[in-house]
Amino acid sequence: MAVKGTGESMILKEELKEQAFNLGADLYGVVEASRFDDAPSGHRPADVLSGAKSVIVLGMKYLDGMVELLPVGKEDGNYPQSPREKMFVGHNAFLSAQLDRIGYTLARVLERKGFKTYHQLASQGGTDDRYLVGMLSLKHIAAEAGLGTFGHHSLLVTPQYGPRVRLTAIVTDAEIEPTDKPLAVNLCDGCVRKPCVTHCPAGAIKEPGETEVYSLDKFLCAQYRRTRPTCSVCLKVCIGGRKG
């Protein structure tokens, strides 16, 4: 068994990272499972895998052209089940399938080494759509792994791609050397127009208070999302996503 802080755990981290990028991942991070011991019951890595020690998080970037298809406000084509929405839904499903393939491959690598794994699928399950809460919060895992910070819209904002990323995670009882510490910057600093607040069709996003990271009315967001196949307006208008 690899032990954290040893050459073996570092080699395992780099081996999995190389495989993830070779398979098409754009983001890779590792965080200790114990970092989430204070998460709500049922949403901790140990709740899905007994003896969990490490969590690997993987990300893939949305194509900018596909995100730009999403209609905002009174644009032409802004109606439920529009061709633009359907095309983005298809792109989202494609990325999810690719992430599931990469995640499963890495999970099997770990299994063949004698470790147990749990794979939080990007495509199916794991999320209570009533409250927009996942069995594991992929955004929190990615933030703890140093891949990004929370935006005013509650999405993960990465330095490279803004919020235009899709995530998956693997929980394992292998001790893998963590990657980076959480970022010490707020990637929403300098965003003056707050387009995610202005353009939210549900009115669910507000400017956060001084002690808040974000202010999202999950009920309003969930209610609006039930009226159409996708929303993701905040994903499109976030200025952090216009850099790469």
Topology:
Layout (H helix, E strand, L loop, with lengths): L6 H16 L4 E6 L12 H4 L5 E8 L2 H4 L15 H30 L4 E4 L6 E2 L4 E2 L3 H7 L4 E2 L5 E2 L7 E8 L22 H5 L5 E2 L8 E2 L1 H8 L7 H5 L7
Helix fraction bin: 25-40%
Give the strand tally.
Answer: 10
Strand order of the largest sheet: 1-2-8-3
Shape: globular
**SSE series:** HEHEHHEEEHEEEHEEHH
> How far from one another are the termini?
39 Å
Chain-averaged pLDDT: 89
% residues in beta strands: 15-25%
Number of helices: 8
Low-confidence stretches: none
Please give a structural write-up.
The structure is a single chain. The protein is α+β, with helices and mostly antiparallel strands and 244 residues long. The chain has one domain. It contains 8 helices and 10 strands. The longest helix is centred in the middle third of the chain and has 30 residues, at 83-112. The protein is globular and about 50 Å long. The mean pLDDT is 89.
